[in-house]
Amino acid sequence: MADDHDHHEHDHHDEHDHHDHDHQHPMSDTALRVKALESLLVEKGLVDPAALDQLIDLYETRIGPRNGARIVARAWTDPDFRAALLANGAEAARTLGYEGRQGEDMKVLENTPETHNMVVCTLCSCYPWPVLGLPPVWYKSAPYRARAVNDPRGVLEEFGVRLADGVGIKVWDSTAEMRYMVLPMQPAGTEGWSAEQLEELVTRDSMIGTGIARDPQEASA
Questions:
Q1: Is 121 among the residues known to form the active site?
Q2: Is 206 a catalytic residue?
Q3: pTM for the full model?
Q4: Can 220 be counted among the known catalytic residues?
Q5: Among 39, 125, 174, 220, which one carries the catalytic annotation?
C-alpha cells in the first residue's frame, strides 16, 4: 500500500484502512466561472435547464467515455499497448491523443479473475476527465463515497455486479495527485474481434469498476 499523499488502495476482504489525502479545491476558477455563466443564462431564460441536463448527460455517458473505451479496446487487442498502459496510464493515453487537466497522472488498474478494482474519491470528485468525460452525479454523492469504501461488495450488487465469493475487491481512492481508470476484463468469446467492435462493449461504469464489460450476446442483439 502506498504512502499517504500518493495513490491509495483499500484491499477489501474483511477490513479497510482510511487515509486522509490532500485535494485540490473541488471547483477551479474556470469551473466557477462556467457555473456562474450557466446560472446567469438559465436565469435570463436563454438556456433551457432540461436541454442543459441532456447535454451534460451526453458528455457524462456517451461522448466522454468513448475515449476510455478506445483505450480499453486497444489494450485488449495490442499486448504492447496493454503493457505500456499498465506501466504508465497517463503516458499511454497521451500516445493516443488523450490528455489534459484532471488526467495528468493516471494509473490503470487491471481486473482479473481473482481481483476486481473499483474507484472512488472519498473527499470530493477527482476523476480522469480526458478519458472518462464528466463524472456521473452518483460518483460525487456522499453515499457512494462512503459505502464504496465500507461496503464495496454491496455497492457492486446495487449496480448489478455480483462477484464470486473468491474474488477480492480493491477500492482505490483518487486524489488530486493520482487518478484511476479500470481496465475491465475482455468478455469471453470476443477473441479476434476488432478494436472498433470491442469499443461497443466498454461502458463508463466498467472503467470506474462499478460495472463490467457488456455481454457480447446482448450487444449484438
A1: yes
A2: no
A3: 0.74
A4: no
A5: 125
- Distance (Å, whole) CA 175 – CA 178: 5
Q: Which of 28, 39, 121, 220 is catalytic?
A: 121
Give yes or no: 28 in active site.
no
> Could you give all domains of the chain from N- to C-terminal order, each with its CATH number?
31-220 (3.90.330.10)
Name the residue among 18, 91, 98, 72 with its Cα closest to residue 209: 72
Mean pLDDT by 10 residues, the chain (221 residues): 42 40 44 60 68 58 78 97 96 83 76 98 87 89 95 97 95 92 97 95 96 86 56
Identify residue 80 by its one-letter amino acid code.
Answer: D
